[in-house]
Amino acid sequence: MNSSSLQNHMVESAPLNINDEMLNRIGQVTRALHENLRGLGLDKVIEQIAKDMPDACERLHYVARMTEQSAQRVLNATDLAMPIQASIASESALLKQNWQRVKLEPSLKAEYNETVEETLTFLTLTEKQSLESKALLMDIMMAQDFQDLTGQVIKKIIALTQDLENQLVQVLVDFSPAINKKESSFNQTLINGPQVSIHATDSFANQQQVDDLLDDLGF
Amino acid sequence: MSNLNTKFLVVDDFSTMRRIVRNLLKELGYNNVEEAEDGVVAVKKLQGGDFDFVVTDWNMPNMDGLQLLQFIRSDTDLKHVPVLMVTAEAKKENIIAAAQAGANGYIVKPFTSVTLGEKLSKIFERLEKVEA
Questions:
Q1: Under an 8 A CB cutoff, do A204 and B90 touch?
Q2: Between helices A42-104 and A18-40, what is the axis angle to 10°?
Q3: pLDDT, tens digit, for every residue of A174-188?
Q4: Cβ pairs A/B, distance under 8 A
Q5: How many Å apart are CA B109 and CA B87, to the nearest integer?
Q6: Distance between CA atoms of A60 and A47, rounded to whole angstroms?
Q7: What is the ipTM score, two decimals?
Q8: Prior bond to A54 cis, omega within 30?
Q9: Which chain B residues touch A if contact means CB-CB below 8 Å?
Q10: Residue A139: which residues within 8 A CB-CB, separation 6 or more?
Q11: What average pLDDT does range B14-32 have in this prediction?
C-alpha cells in the first residue's frame, strides 16, 4: 500500500519518461502476479487463466459467427428482392409502351382517355420507384462488407489472445518473477487486415491515394 | 475482351465478400462468375477451366492472394489472365508488392460498386490497347 502511494506521488511530482514508466508498470504487474501466485497457489492461477482466455476467444468467435449469419440473411433477402424490383420495373415499362400505343387510337369515351392517362402516370411512377428501391437494395448489400472487415479484425484479436495465453501460461509454468521481455510481436508483415485506425500514417485511407501510388509506379 | 461472357473467378475466404463481388459483377452485366475460398482452390479451378479474369482478396489461409498472383504470372497457361486485387491490406508496401508481382489493379476494402466498375473498364481498356 505504502509503496504504491509513494509511486503515485513520484509520477505526479516528477514525470518519468515513457520507458521508465513502462518498466515501472511491468514491475508492478510482476509483483502483483508474484503475490497472487503466492496467495492463491500456482495451480489455481493457471487454472483461471486457462479458463478465462478460451472463454474470451469463444465470445469473439460468437461475435464473428453472429455477424456472418446476419450478413448472410441480408444477402439472401436482397438476392431475392432485387430481381423482383427489376421485374416490376421492366413489366411497367412494357405495359406503359402498350398503353402509349393504345392512346394514339382515337376514342370517343372521355373516361377511357382519362383512365389511360392515369395508368400511364402510375406506370411511369412504378418503373421509377422500382429502380430506386433496387438501388437501395444494392446499397444494403454493399453495407454487408462490414462482416468481412470486422471478421478479419476479430480473427486477428483471437490469434493475439491465444498467443498471450500461451505466453502467460509459460510464465506461470516457469514460475519466474523475472519476465524475459520477448521480442516485439508487432512484426512488419504484408498481412495486417483492415486499417482500423483513422490516424495511421503508414496505410492508405482511400482508393484515391492507392490510385495515386499506382500511377507513380507506372501502373 | 470486355464482353459480357468474360469468365470471372472471385477468390475470397469470406463468403459474404464473394457474394457481394458476384452480385456487383452481375449488376455490371457479367453473369459468368465462379468462386474459390482460397488460393489453393483458385489454382485448381484456374487449371481446370478457361477463366478470363481473376478478382482476388489478399489475406486468405493456405495460399494468399499475392502468392496466387505470383503463381498465375509464373504459369505458362495462366500468365496472361488479368488479376484485380480487392483487399483490406492498404499499406504502401502491399500496393508496391502487388504491382511488382504483376497485378492489373488494386482496390482497397471497403469499396463501392462504382470503384469496381471503373477499375474493370480501365483494365479492359488497357488490355485492348495492348492487343491492338
A1: yes
A2: 120
A3: 664 444 434 444 445
A4: 102
A5: 5
A6: 21
A7: 0.73
A8: no
A9: 12, 14-17, 19-20, 23-24, 27, 58-59, 64, 66, 88-97, 99, 103, 106-113, 115
A10: none
A11: 94
Residue B46 lies in a domain: yes
Under DSSP, is residue A132 helix (H, G, I), strand (E, B) or coil?
A: helix
Chain B neighbors of A138, CB-CB under 8 A: 23, 27, 113
Q: Name the residue facing A145 among B95, B96, B110 (closest C-beta).
A: B110
Give residue-wise pLDDT tens across range B48-97. Answer: 989 999 999 999 999 999 999 999 999 999 999 999 999 999 899 999 99
What is the rounded average pLDDT for all residues in chain A? 77
> What CATH number is attached to the domain comprising B92?
3.40.50.2300
Say if the Cβ atoms of A72 and B92 lie within 8 Å. no
CB B110 within 8 A of CB A145: yes
Range of the domain at B80: 8-131
